[in-house]
Amino acid sequence: VLRFEDPPPEPPPLPAPVTWQIVCRVRMQPHGGSRMARCYLCNVMEVAPLGPAPQHFRQRWARPCKRCPYLWHRSCLEHRLGTCKCRGAIKMREADLICKGCGREFEPAQRFPESLPELLVATRLEWKWVLRRIFVMLLFLVWLHSLAEHYSMVEGICREIRVLMIMTAGMMSISVSQRFHQGVQKIWHTPNRWHYLKLFALVAVLAYLASLRVFKPARWAAAAAQWPWLAALHEAHSAVYSSMIGTVALSTISLVYVVTASGLIFCFWKTSLRVPTVLDVGHAHHDALKRSSSGCGLCQLGLCLDNDGM
User: Fold this and answer.
1) How close are the terminal C-alpha atoms of the chain, in Å?
2) What pLDDT sits at residue 87?
3) pLDDT of residue 31
4) Which residues of the chain have pLDDT under 70?
5) Are 61 and 106 in contact (CB under 8 A)?
6) Can you give the pLDDT at residue 211?
7) How many angstroms separate the CA atoms of 70 and 83, rounded?
8) Which end of the chain offers a freer environment for a tag, N or C, measured as fewer CB atoms within 10 Å?
């Protein structure tokens, strides 16, 4: 008999003396002061855990200038200032734009969506861009299907080719977008261009290996008979296609191709949209200097926030 019990309640907050003891101990550690921050909007003090700092596009804190002693949660500012419209002007009162500590105005900025509701709202607001990308993908899908029909391959291939065609059409739609071209131009004359070449090689190898699963060996038996150098490849393809282990291996490769293509399409979709936020002027210049040498994968691919292509 299974007994479903209610989840345990959340632990009560620590008493104030215990909280300040923890804060004092952290502050006494090397570089402990830099791990502590207090939001002057919600009056909450946080102690950052040990480890690497988050990426520059996922900063939790914001300040209007370098010398300002006040720190603000970026989420608190967004909630207070009403920054809920993507790629639009931040509508707020002048009193809400001014910092109470230094008197400077907060500067509007943009960030990536960090949750599914934000991603859906940003997608709904950019519906014209979504329709344009779907239209381009459908054009590539029709072109791929017409090629298969022209060469009488539709009847000689399995049903998995439909899914592979959709994934391939989505990847081809990304390759002709303005954002992709701007990203390539940003990093082409840097060592990071090898990331694109390696990624292209990976996708190409997976696509060619997945084609061995979707096409039957009988479709190119006549070509193998005419060209002797294709006979060995045809025999290997037939042996792998007819064996159980080969079928499982080729199906796994097709699944890996679909998962890889789906991940790339989702990454392109998420990083193409923006959500209004507040700029952290205190770290903006420092982040700009470290951006080229940082471990941010989006910066290395030229697809970070400085790429405003759609």
Assistant:
1) 56
2) 39
3) 66
4) 1-14, 31-35, 49-54, 56, 66, 81-97, 100-101, 151-159, 282-295
5) no
6) 78
7) 21
8) N
List phi, psi (to 5°) of 6: -65, 145
Burial degree of 219 (CB within 10 A; 0-12, 13-18, 19+): middle
pLDDT at 136: 92
CA–chain centroid gap for 304, Å, is 10
Residue 108, φ and ψ in degrees, nearest 5: -70, 150
Distance between CA atoms of 179 and 182, rounded to whole angstroms?
5
pLDDT (0 to 100) of residue 188: 84
Full 3-state SS string of the chain: CCCCCCCCCCCCCCCHHHHHHHHHHHHHCCCCHHHEEEECCCCEEEECCCCCCCCHHHCCEECCCCCCCCEEEHHHHHHHHCCCCCCCCCCCCHHHHECCCCCCECCEEEECCCCHHHHHHHHHHCHHHHHHHHHHHHHHHHHHHHHHHHCCCCCCECCHHHHHHHHHHHHHHHHCCHHHHHHHHHHCCCCCHHHHHHHHHHHHHHHHHHHHHHECHHHHHHHHHHCHHHHHHHHHHHHHHHCHHHHHHHHHHHHHHHHHHHHHHHHHHHHHCCEEEECCHHHHHHHHHHCCCCCCHHHHCCCCCCCCCC
Rounded to whole angstroms, the Cα distance separating 162 from 172 reads 15
Report the pLDDT value the prediction gives residue 135, as an integer from 0 to 100.
94
Q: Which amino acid is at 134?
A: I
